[in-house]
Amino acid sequence: MLLSTAFFFLLITIVVLSNFLNEDEYFLQIYLPYKSSVYFETPIEPNQIFYHEYIHSVERSPVREYFKIDQHYNMIATESWTKSFGAGLPYEQKDELEMKDGFIVIKQERLIEYLNMLPSDLFPHVFNIDGQTVDLSAELNGERIRIQVIKK
């Protein structure tokens, strides 16, 4: 009886530890959908922030768009920073507008499933997360890319 009880507790411990060790991990990727390959990948945690920044081709002004990872590992668009309004730039009246460092900061949270882009070397375009920077305009010029969260 004592041996079967010890075996039972050992079995329960193994099951609990294996579930703990097999916890899902989430990653933010720069994915190349037409090549079915991953260009960049980094582990992510809830509340992590990342952004991409580019020079708008018409307005010739910098635009920075911020995103965060929520507690369910969804991408949430949180802020757009721009120095002007024009073609393709946000211009509608928003609840929260402020001026910061010469930028108009538009705060509006919305769920984003993924973010498709087509970087060009005509204007600088970078992606940044936790100090890791990918120069999209230099490294992925003309490549269709998708920024997405995946679970492994």
Radius of gyration from the alpha-carbon trace, in angstroms: 21 Å
**Beta-strand level of the residues, as a percent range?**
over 45%
> Rough shape?
elongated
Number of helices: 2
Arithmetic mean of pLDDT: 85
Give the total of beta strands. 11
Count of folded domains:
1
What percentage of residues falls in helices of 4 or more residues? 10-25%
Give the N-terminus to C-terminus distance in angstroms: 41 Å
Query: What is the N-to-C order of secondary-structure elements (H for helix, E for strand)?
Result: HEEEEEEEEEEHE
Structural class by SSE content: alpha+beta
User: What is the spatial order of strands in the main beta sheet?
Assistant: 6-7-5-4-3-9-10
Q: Low-confidence parts lasting 5 or more residues at pLDDT below 50? A: none
Organism: Halalkalibacter krulwichiae
Protein name: DUF1850 domain-containing protein
InterPro entries: DUF1850
Pfam families: DUF1850 (PF08905)
Could you outline the blueprint of secondary structure elements for this entry?
Elements: H1 2-21, E1 26-32, E2 37-43, E3 49-55, E4 62-69, E5 75-82, E6 96-100, E7 103-112, E8 115-117, E9 125-129, E10 132-135, H2 136-139, E11 145-151
